[in-house]
Write a structure and sequence with these properties.
Number of strands: 13
Helix content: 25-40%
CATH class: Alpha Beta
Distance between the termini: 35 Å
Strand content: 15-25%
Largest sheet: 6 strands, antiparallel
Amino acid sequence: MIHVWNLNYLVNYDLCNAGPMGKKSFILVFPVLCFGLSLFTSCDLIGDRDKAGAVPEDKFQRILDQAVTGYGLPSAILLIENPDTLWVGVSNHPNTYITADMSVNSKFRIGGVSKTFLSVLYLMLQEEGVLHLDSAISSEVYDYPLDSGTTYRMLLGHTSGLPDYFAHRDVTFTTSDNSSQIGMFWRDPEYMWTGKDILKRAPFPRPPLDKSWAYSNTNYLLAGKMIETMLAEDADPVTTPYLQDIYDERIFQPLGMENTIFLEDDQVIENLAHGFEKASNSVEDVTFFHPSITNAAGSIVTTVEDLRIFLNAVFNKDLISKNSLSELIGPYWEVNYGLGLFTRPNTYLGTILFNYGSIPGYRSQFNYYPQRKTLIILLANSNTQPGVDLAARYIFEELELRLFY
């Protein structure tokens, strides 16, 4: 699946929400945590800093290597940036099944992290006066009727009540070994899916719908098409603007993101990291899977450096205003979700802003710590569970301990 909600709590361990005891509660559990982490590392936090108080960069590489080898990932890229450090490292499993080693310049399919991009694009258009997030959507998209009063904010915030097309058995099903597989992917993995194709093959009951919070890729599939439709009204009638063109014009090119695309055709992507999945006792190269099945909900391909550029432009308010950033962050609901962005407020590290993406063969996540001015990005070329989730949890926990204590 593109998204599993419980992963929010798996990746961002409860130490990040230490409660009223704050650091005292952390101290109480620290010996237990060190014992658990000793499976991979000595947990020698006191010796991790140099005389200037910085964490030696070889420690970052060691954390990444231990996660890759300890949890059986083929490869992973890690980026750490704060006012004192910009470090990027890559780790390839010593017994890897990859035909060629991955580099820090490799491109990745980032799945659900694409939702942050689309939400930022909507906020940019709101600043330009093209739309208002709280305006009711007046027309159908892909002949898919919406409840009266459904707004753009409801789509981006997952409160439209629209069911997730990835929950439909024709799209995703569970195999005998309890692993999730994408039905349409295995039947025709190289087919280029349109939004209409997807919804036609995954029908759902029509509204009225429950509009409490529920993660749904359908929201972003429709939101992507709506932007194309809105901007087409002012475009050359002979040329329909596609989401790739809109991203290029408003985000990718202005920021110099030369290695980022929104994939909606069959173009060959140079330097794309091969993606792998484990099935029973075999390993499958699933790079041939065409991500168009994720549509606007997850079809962006990028590098760790381009993703860093984008996130810095967002969080430093170079791309959107302070007010728009506040709208992006929220959070609006009990699940601490804004618009294409999760938030963990009031942790012992301050606020944590994050998002993650899961797509066959690829796993991505970023955490931003505004009070610490620190950004961490992880990209892996496998989405095999539970190894990749455990590896991500280990990496972020270790880095939080070493960077902030």
